[in-house]
Write a structure and sequence with these properties.
Layout lengths: L4 E5 L4 H13 L5 E6 L6 H14 L3 E4 L9 H8 L11 H15 L4 E4 L18 E4 L9 H7 L5 H11 L2 H11 L9 H11 L1 H12 L23 H11 L10 E5 L2 E5 L14 H10 L1 H9 L13 H4 L2 H17 L26
Parallel strand pairs: 1-2, 1-4, 2-3, 4-5
Antiparallel strand pairs: 6-7
Length: about 375
């Protein structure tokens, strides 16, 4: 059999850290390699989490750098190469250059399963490599497969083949229900999402075994495995589960998620950071920029120094303007209103306050 590499990218955020802990405990026999794509612009809290995680895993988390020969910080090196052009949501050269490229170089040409920490309560996929030797697996979700895999598997042309595979690999208690759904062709009225959900309702392990059997007829990395224990997994993990895993393991929740109180005209509210990644991440909400200014002023000043020659982190406002007293007050008032709209949440964590922006920064594009 051809050897298959198992990798998991650590972003410094909660989801990827919890996934590493979860897989170590659930599947200790999997030889997973951990990596972290470094920009040298991460918060100190990010490195603290990575160090704690290394201690828990008993394994080194490989630090990947896109430019290994430069004495400069990674971001500063590439910013010069891009002529001072700051990255943005429309021009994410930082993600491509400092995250995706070193990740794919780290993997090389070996068949690889990449474990991605997207939760069961999220509706996104993140980065899916275009390299044929890299396949993403989503252990926290009911559906562990990428959309590409589902589309190829459930194509109408495969109905006869999938029927035969059901008869060959599924136990009798699952066969009839799954075959009945497999026989129903995809159409405008019965789309892929609905068919997938119907199959998962009958049996998550049964559907996974069917997909696994189908993938053996392809060149996907997982086709080189004789068996794959996660096929039997029926866990679906959501945000509260992630915080629980981090707390119970002793690794701890990244400190930038901690609530910090602020007050506006006698009204008290809370703010924090909702993502890992660079301290100047352009995906931040404005209240997060204020959090950075009031709690890491030296980093805010550094972020502000990058704004020159017409380039800014936000499309509609410069950092020098966002910290004017009246503007800070206005942003905090908006945050109070946002928090009030979510006051029905029973979660003990800050996930109800900043959930609209939740993510793991640039790293969430691919891990």
């Amino acid at each position: 059999m051809i050897e298959v590499k198992h990798v998991l990218g650590i972003s410094g955020g909660k989801d990827s850290a919890a996934l590493a802990i979860y897989l170590k405990n659930k599947y200790p026999h999997l030889d997973i390699q951990y990596y972290f794509c470094e920009t040298n612009k991460e918060l100190d809290e990010t490195y603290k989490l990575i160090n704690n995680l290394e201690n828990y895993l008993g394994k080194k988390i490989e630090r990947l750098k896109a430019a290994t020969e430069t004495p400069e910080d990674q971001f500063d090196h590439f910013l010069k190469l891009y002529g001072g052009y700051l990255p943005s949501s429309n021009a994410r050269w930082c993600t491509r250059t400092m995250k995706l490229e070193p990740f794919e170089k780290f993997v090389g040409s070996m068949p690889t399963l990449s474990y991605v920490g997207i939760r069961g309560d999220e509706n996104r996929e993140g980065y899916i490599s275009h390299k044929e030797n890299i396949q993403s697996i989503f252990p926290f979700r009911k559906n562990i497969w990428s959309e590409e895999i589902i589309t190829k598997t459930l194509a109408n042309k495969n109905i006869p083949l999938l029927e035969d595979m059901c008869l060959a690999v599924l136990p009798n208690r699952q066969k009839d229900g799954i075959i009945r759904i497999i026989r129903e062709p995809l159409s405008f009225q019965y789309d892929q999402t609905r068919k997938l959900n119907d199959l998962l309702i009958i049996s998550i392990p049964g559907f996974n075994k069917l997909v696994f059997e189908f993938l053996k007829t392809t060149d996907y990395p997982i086709s080189h495995l004789e068996d794959y224990p996660p096929l039997e997994n029926e866990d679906v993990l959501v945000r509260d589960d992630i915080f629980r895993i981090l707390e119970e393991s002793g690794v701890g929740i990244p400190e930038y998620y901690n609530k910090i109180e602020f007050e506006v005209d006698g009204k008290k509210g809370y703010y924090s950071r909702s993502r890992s990644g660079c301290f100047f991440c352009f995906f931040q909400q404005k209240i997060e920029w204020i959090w950075l200014y009031e709690n890491h002023k030296n980093l805010f000043v550094k972020a502000m120094e990058y704004e020159k020659e017409g380039y800014s982190w936000m499309q509609d406002e410069r950092l020098e303007d966002i910290i004017k007293p009246e503007r800070i007050k206005q942003i905090k008032e908006e945050q109070l209103k946002r928090a009030a709209r979510k006051s029905n949440s029973k979660s003990p964590f800050l996930i109800d306050i900043l959930e609209e922006a939740e993510g793991e920064g640039c790293a969430a594009c691919f891990i």
